Amino acid sequence: MTGDPTLVTTVLGSCVSLTFFARSRGISGICHAMLPETTPGDWESAFRFVDASVVHLIERFDRLGIPRRQIEVKLFGGADVLAMPGRRPEAQTVGRKNIAAAKMAIVRERLVLQAADVGGTTGRKLFFVTHTGEVLLKKLEKGGIT
Predict the structure, then answer these.
(1) What is the tens place of the pLDDT at every residue in 42-84?
(2) What order do you get walking across the sheet with 71-77 strand by strand?
(3) Structurally, how many domains does the chain consist of?
(4) Beta bridge partners of 19
(5) Mean pLDDT score, 93-102
(6) Domain range enclosing 111
(7) Which of 17, 18, 27, 121 is least crowded, fewest Cβ atoms below 10 Å from its Cβ?
(8) Using only C-alpha atoms, what is the Rg of the chain?
(9) If you write DSSP's letter for every residue of 48-103 in order, what string do you get?
(10) pLDDT tops 90 at residue 113
């Protein structure tokens, strides 16, 4: 979480990132989560998980007195990047579970999703401009950027 102008870059496959931006205060945050949900007693490594990462970020905004309606939330990632021969199209992959967990956390925390680019079969490279809330996105194809 920061109030300083920063460019945060991350690469996503099945992981998801959520960006939070409070325009009125110039405060932003981002998470990069690998798995959908924490397991009991696993809060030690909580930032690997979608549910715990969202809770942590929203608590930080709450402590600053920023109303949830003022937080711009964006969601990215959750691709099915690993080829799995014989996998049914409706199978619950890690990417799909991460997307579902992020959307559930957004609803549970009474946030509004402003933008999303999720799913598919290609990774993404994100550039988050913390002082404007802008997110630039490049899709990755077979080791390169398209």
Answers:
(1) 666 778 899 999 999 999 999 999 999 999 999 999 999 876 6
(2) 27-33, 16-22, 71-77, 113-118
(3) 1
(4) 30, 74
(5) 95
(6) 7-145
(7) 121
(8) 15
(9) GBHHHHHHHHHHHHHHTT--GGGEEEEEEE----S--TT--TT---HHHHHHHHHH
(10) yes
